Amino acid sequence: MILQIQKHMKKASLILIILTIFLSANVSSLEAGRCEKAFLNCFLGSLRSLPNFTRVYLNIGYCLNGWVFCGKYLEK
Amino acid sequence: MRKLLFLVSLLAIALYVHLPSLSGKDIQKILLEEVLSIGSLEDDALFQWVGVISDSDSYIYVTDNMDYSLKKFDDQGNLIKKAGRKGQGPGEFLAPRYLGISNEFLYVTDQFKSKIQVFDKNLNYSRSLPISMPVSDLKVLSDDKIAVTTISMSKTGRIFIFNSKGKIKRELLYSDKKSPLMIDNVNFDFDVQGNLYVVYNYQDKIEKFDPEGRKIWTKKLLNIKKIKREKIGQFTLPTKFVYKDVALDSSGNLFILGGGFSKNPSCDVYVLTPEGNHLTTFTLPDSSHCIYVDGNDFLYSRINEGVTLRKFKIKYVYE
Is there a contact between B83 and B119 (Cβ–Cβ < 8 Å)? Predict the structure, then answer.
């Protein structure tokens, strides 16, 4: 049982590392506006909740909410 | 005889005031007369206000994103009280957003909190309603009927009605299509009969539903067919707003704030009758993220990128 959990944790950590590298590369290459940057930072932050996928899912919802608010507030 | 004369005079005044609406004349244009301005670049009354609402005593309540607060102003614009600070605790905020009001309480959403915080009108924290999804718009119909839209990747296209305990009483489905991410995001309002008006943020679509949830009409104002979307990281997200907000005046006319597709982006306000007919369009003096119309037909909007809140009397000019 413990071995199985450890296996899952390893998998999740690997996914997290790959995603972080991929997204970090994406952030630096993107000529992002303020809202884009904020959204990507929020998304990366939400991945810290891994392997709690329910939490990550909810956090991404908050990031999307921020995306809407940011655009609404800053768009002219 | 005197009494009769007095009554006749009263009737004449009432008729004069209400003549345009009684005779069925349409609104030809709308003028805004500034009556109050709160906050400026020279003071620290407001830093970056987000939500605004007023009560029947003309007090104005505002959330401020920059100093994590909820503020109460009197009808002259004097700061009466300020509540809140940055934090996770009761009465504290991480990103205070939208406001709702009942006879007794104020409801405040927070972008990063899965709850709506409830304050009394003296800004004392009262309780919290657990809402397990991020809230993107809020209308308080009563303390036991709190309507919210949420942002979720699975449950889209619906408005949830919560009771005073934070339990879902009803779900109003306004879109049953499986749309791309965020495309069904809306702002909404209810009229006194309980009809629901929905304006889509990223589509050229305005809809009215009856209290049973049946669609009455759908309108397009700008004839926009293509939604502007961009790939942001792993997500393809809409980027340009068609409509930013909706508010109703005391006659049930809709005031819809246009977004980036409007001739004057984030400034043009489209006025529609309850039947969905376009009456007129007017322009705010500065771009705004929201509009709010109170029960006495005063309109509130943003100036100076959120440092200033302006209150205008809506002046209706009839044909």
Answer: yes
